[in-house]
Each structure stands twice: as C-alpha cells, then as structure tokens.
Specification:
Chain A has 16 helices and 13 strands. Chain A is an alpha/beta fold and 432 residues long. A four-stranded mixed sheet of chain A has the order 1-4-5-13, with helices on both faces. The first copy, chain A, has a four-stranded antiparallel sheet with strand order 6-9-11-7, with helices on both faces. A three-stranded antiparallel sheet of chain A has the order 10-8-12, with no helix packed on it.
C-alpha cells in the first residue's frame, strides 16, 4: 500500500518534468524487481522517462539501482587492472575475440560478460559457441577463478547479475520505450559495472548497420555512457566507429571465428577488423596502465599479434571453456552473388544484411531461435571498392542450401553501385 | 500475438506525437477491455496520451470505443426528447434532484445515470439513498420502463455500461494519468452518450471546491466536452459555474435532500441552489424543444416549482424507487462553529470542507467506505456576507458526536474573514 502511494507520486513527478531523487528511483526499481510494484506502474514511469528525459544524476541513480538489484563481481584479489570493452552492436563485429586475447596477453585482466545475437546484430557468445565444446555457461565462481588464473574468460548475463535490467528490458520491448537515452545508458552500464572492472572502452557505432543511424545520436550515447562510467570513478574512453558496412569480411558465427583466427595468427585479409581491434585494445592498455601512451600501447598490441602471444591466449581461452578449435565446422554449401555491371560500391544496407543473416539462421529473430553455426555472409568488397561485372560481391554460406537460395535476391539488393569513384569512409570518426 | 504487435506500434506512434487512427484506437480499447492486451501496454499508452495529447478526431474515436465497449441505451420508443445534465462535481451540488423533476414535469424525459461520492465531491446516488427504501439498483430494463412511464429515473453505472471506462479509470488512478483533458472528456462523454440522450447540459465548475481550480482549465474542459457531444450529433450547452464556496447551504446526504425538498416546495432559503437548478433546467428545456427561448424556458421551470408539479414528480420518483420520503432521517447531534470576530467572508477552502465531510462520514475516502446518511455540514453564510462575533458560520450534523467534535477545528479553518467588504462572486461565469 505504501509502495503504491509512492509509486504514483514518483510517476506524476516525472510526468510533470520533475527530477526524481535517488531514493525515489532506488525504491521504485527495488519494489519492481521484488515484484511488489506492478508492470503497469513501471511502464507508465518508463513512458514518462522516455518523453521527459532524465538528467545525469537521475541516470546515475537509475544505473546504480539496476546494478545493485543483483550481484556485483569483485576482482580485488587480482592485482592487475580489470578492463573491458563494450560495443553498441553491429554486423560482423567480432573485435572482442581479438582484443580480449591481446589485452590479456599484455598483462591486464579482461572479465567479459557478453551477449547473444538478436535481430540484425550478432553476439559474442554465439560466435564462441560455434567452436565445438565451447561452454559459455560458467558459474560466477568458475568465471572468477578463470579470470584470476588466465586473465580472460567469457560468460553470459546470469540471473544473478542485474535482474532489474532483465525485467525492465523485457517490459520496454513491448511498451514502446526502448529508444530512450537514459534507459539505454543505464541498461548498458549497470551490466558493465557489475563486472567489477576498473576501466572500460566503448565502441559506439553509427551508420546503416548500427542502432544509432547518425553520428550525432551516437555521440550523445557515447557521452551519456562515459558520464556514468566517470560518475562511478571508472576510467573510460569511447571510439565512434563507422557501421555503414559490415566490419571485416565475415558475418556469421564460425566464419567470424575463422576471420579472428587469421588475424590472431598475424594475417591481414580483413584490415578493418584488425585495425579496430588494435585501436580498441590499445585504449584498454592505456586506461589499464599497461602502456604509458597511445603509440606504445598500439605497438604492444601489434606485437601481441605478430609474436603469436595473442593467438596462444585464444587457445588458452578455448581450453578454459572446453572448446576444440581444430574441430571448427565448415559450411557445407555456398552461393556467390556477382556484380551485374561495372562500378564503385556506394553503400550497403547493413541492417538488411544482418536480417538476411537471421533468415539463413546465422542470427535470431526472437530469443528462442536456434542458430546454425556455419551460416553466414562474406562481403568481398567494401565502400569505394571498384568492381567489374562478374566479380563476387557476396557469398552466402551454410548447411541449408534452400535457405541460402531463398535469400540470394534479398542480399543482392543490399548493395548500391555508383558509376563514379566513391571515397571510403573513415573507420573511426571520433574519440571521446 | 498480433494484438501485441499492433499495441506496441500504436504506443510508439502516440509517443512520437502522431495521430492515432480510429481503427488503432478502437482495436486497442477493444483488446484491453477483453483482456487480451495487458495493463502495462495500456498504461504506457495512457502516459503517452497524457504527455502528447489527442486531437478532436482522436478524442471522438476514443469516446466511441469506450461507449461501444458496453450497452448503449435506446429510448427511441419514447416520443419526447431525452435530456440530461452532467456536473463535473463539487460540494453541496444537488441540482440533479431539483432540475430532474422540473424537466420531467415539463414533458421531457430525463434518464439519469449518476455517480457516488468520492473524495471531497458528493454523489447523487448517495443523496437519494439517504431516503429510506430508495433503491438505485434498478436493472437496465427496469430503468428503461421507468423512464418511459414516468419520464425520470436514476441508476448507477452498471457493469453493462462502458466497461472499458471502468477498467481504464482504475488504471489511470494508479499510473498518474488522471488529469488529461482527452482522457477526462472521453470518460465523461462515453458514459453520458450511453444513456441514449438527445441533448446534454453541462455544469462545468471551477474554484476551490472544483476539480478545475481556475476558469481557463474549466473552459477548456467545457469546450472539449461540447465538441464530443456535437461530434455525436447531440445538442449541448455548458454553464461555467462558481465552486469557490459550497452550493446552497447543506452538504451531506439527507441534509441536501431536505434542501431540495424545500426548494421543490417553493422555498428560497438556498437561493443559489434554486437559481442554478432553474438555469440548468431551462437550458434542458430549450435543447429538448420544450421551450422556444431561454426566457420562456426559465418561466416554465419556475412555474414547475411554484405550482408544486416538480415536487409531485419528485414524490413520483420516490415511489418508482421505493423511497419513503416521510421517513427521511434527521441527524441526532449538531455542533455550531461561531465567528470569533466581526468581518466579511472573504473565501472558503471548499475542497477542505468536502474533506471534513469525508471525515464525518458524509462522503468517502475510498470507494468501499460506508456513508452515514445524516452526516453533513450547513454553511450559514456565503462569500461577501457580513458576520459578527458569535454568529454561526457552520453547523456540523450527524449521528456520531465524537466525529463531529474531532472535525470542528479543521472545519473552522476553512473560512477566511476580511475587515473590509467583499464582493460576492457571480454564480454563473459564462455560457457555452
């Protein structure tokens, strides 16, 4: 009864553009998570927040309430800095699998709580699970031991971590309250802060394959996320990166693992994936105190690749999780999509490429969909690339030829050619 | 599943300031009333409507959807015009009990679906039920027969009428979405339109005892309500009336019945109650075609009082509902609150007077409270009135002396005196 009275007053205050106090936010979230405050009051508040906004102290308090709704990991016993990277999601975005081993091999700890693919964006856990035997379902104590011993491990969001976020996110999804900056920031940061990290590097993407289609929205998001991290005394920096085309060549789980292995072994057939991974890893080294400046950090990271140390760390990671790298499956079938005319690649509908991925079972339309690990798309040329009639633009891979055939036309329509030369976009637009 | 997808799209559209189509509104309300659309989606939409508003066609569609969620009465077989009055609520507002018999005795039909008291405002049904034996719980068919035969009958909102409104109102109450003009208009008008009336007179109140504290908000509400009525092809007019003090002398159920009986018998000890009842009744006669102009309508209504025809109609009404007027209970106790100094009455905190009424059980704090029919307050002098030390300002009446004593100080604090003469406010500010 008392909770109900507080709840409707809190809703009215936000509705009228007021600023909620930390106590109001904390009690509201606590009651909702415990189930004493009903969904319909939470959704009314979410809509009021969506339309009225939240300032920095409110967003911090919301993050804090969500963070403390569950377990917050504590890695104090590990003497080195704990650093992580978070990406806002895209197509072919596999940098975690490269920068994680690089940074861990350079002496810092990387405790990664990762997600699964949904809609057009992929998920790190799905990629790892394409390695036969790879088990991402460690318990929190197994995860902690692994990070302590090997400086790297991966895990999914367990029910102990940020239960408030899980419950609120499900409600936002059906009440038109997803695209709200303070709600997005609190959701992302509560999960990252639960990792017990000292520093965080953000990869905030913009473009046709990102959630934020334009630079300005992406910058706002980056600033919001950085401000929360700083409010918690965490070191943070953000790169604003281009997602107007898939990152690297491969999108699809085992195909992306192959691309990562090639880079970890010193290869360079996907220079954008390699470069972005190195840039993000270098940032992590600087924030974690393992390098004094950007130049020496970048050099250290490059050496981790060329020396094979990062690859060894990846093999070590597979051992921790029981993955058998040598058994990585190969797609049974592939289809090629060829250019019908000469020209320069002008643009990609990258989100649509991701949705073709969903159709061929490289991704999920709903959380219960089952992924086919070898399904995926290789993008053979990038924006600005010159193509001639008959050149292969895409290849579709997977175990189900019918699905690949069904998606051919849709995928072909995601690329636009120009008669005149096109300038390739910068991979990294800005640094915060 | 389909309903859910539509629901979140409808929510997003309103959230982004879009105009909802009649189909979107109708389907949303239908699914909610049927229980296939959950509370949390309805409350998100209500908050979006609260903050983004609704234009006239949307408000009409919402009214229509709520109206058609239940039974719409049909009085076509009654050859005369069916007219009603709706008041937005106040303290001591008893005009329905006077104008109903007046208008019915002038040949028009008055099918009144009335409400109960809640918070500081009273309810017509509670007033009638203070008459021993008076049964307001007629079935819809009994109600129709009574209106057909006697041209007047009273009934409460049954579960057959506007079930959507009932469900939505309960949700608005706990989600901070009550004070929204389109939601208020649709709620009021769907219930009135369900009465199957041809014409409606609105008594929209402003002041310290009204929901709308200022004239401008009251006028907006009046315009909104009139526009819906006209959209349905109903004749409508509205009076904007002053509620800066209780209407008449009595507030409290049996006390108000006594005041009405005195007026119906031709008395004039509560001139404001008498005048407002006559003005509203005259409007009803004009809209219903029983008088050609305002002057002749007013004359007809006055004659209905002076001739005793209105009183006879009230006695007939009591017979229909089984009420025994002669057994009207009298309060056992009364306490007087006297002026402690000379002066002129400057203002009343009328809402507070209503809340003292709730405390002495003349009204309800929550819908389940039980009313004590004889409890009430007599206001002995009005704004502008000259009082001398020792004059009685209020008297508190009821069956429970302790309750009356407990409320004495609170009631005394609701009146403010001035040293210099004060002008009495106009009873009727404006006509629409």
């Amino acid at each position: 009864m008392v909770a109900t009275i507080i709840a409707s007053e809190v809703i009215k205050k936000k509705r009228d553009g007021g600023r909620l106090s930390p106590v109001e936010i904390t009690e509201f979230i606590k009651a909702y998570t415990e189930g004493t405050l009903p969904d319909y009051q939470m959704s009314a508040l979410l809509m009021a927040i969506f339309l009225r906004g939240m300032d920095e102290p409110e967003t911090l308090a919301l993050t804090s309430a969500m963070l403390h709704s569950g377990t917050v990991l504590d890695f104090k016993e590990i003497p080195v800095a704990k650093v992580d990277k978070h990406s806002t999601g895209g197509v072919g975005d596999k940098t975690s699998l490269i920068l994680g081993p690089i940074v861990a091999s350079c002496g810092l700890a990387v405790p990664m709580i990762s997600g699964r693919g949904l809609g057009h964006t992929g998920g790190t856990l799905d990629k790892l699970e394409s390695i036969p035997g790879f088990n991402v379902n460690l318990s929190l104590s197994e995860f902690k031991s692994a990070v302590k011993k090997h400086h790297i491990a991966f895990i999914g969001q367990t029910k102990e971590i940020c239960p408030a976020d899980k419950k609120i996110y499900a409600l936002r999804d059906v009440t038109g309250t997803v695209e709200s900056l303070p709600l997005i920031c609190a959701s992302i940061m509560s999960k990252k802060l639960a990792e017990g990290i000292d520093a965080l590097v953000l990869d905030v993407k913009f473009g046709t394959g990102a959630f934020m289609k334009n630079k300005s929205d992406a910058e706002k998001l980056a600033l919001g996320l950085c401000s929360i991290a700083r409010g918690y005394g965490k070191k943070v920096s953000a790169l604003l990166t281009n997602m107007d085309q898939p990152l690297g060549n491969a999108s699809g789980n085992s195909l992306e693992i192959e691309e990562c292995l090639e880079i970890l072994k010193g290869g360079a057939s996907a220079p954008d994936t390699r470069e972005l991974s190195l840039q993000l890893a270098a940032k992590m080294l600087v924030l974690g105190g393992a390098a004094s400046d950007a130049t020496s950090a970048y050099k250290k990271c490059s050496e981790a690749l060329s020396s094979g140390r990062a690859y060894e760390k990846f093999e070590e990671l597979c051992q921790i999780h029981g993955g058998h790298l040598k058994e990585l499956p190969r797609p049974k079938f592939h289809l090629e999509i060829k250019a019908k005319e000469n020209g320069y690649i002008q643009s990609f509908d990258t989100e649509k490429i991701g949705m073709v991925g969903v159709r061929i079972k490289a991704g999920r339309a709903v959380t219960t969909d089952v992924i086919e690990p070898t399904a995926g798309i290789i993008t053979h040329s990038k924006i600005g690339g010159k193509v001639q009639r008959g050149d292969v633009l895409y290849s579709l891979h997977g175990a189900n030829l019918d699905l690949l055939k069904m998606s051919e036309a849709e995928l072909a329509a995601t690329i636009k050619l120009s008669d005149t030369p096109v300038t390739a976009p910068d991979l990294i637009w800005k640094e915060i």
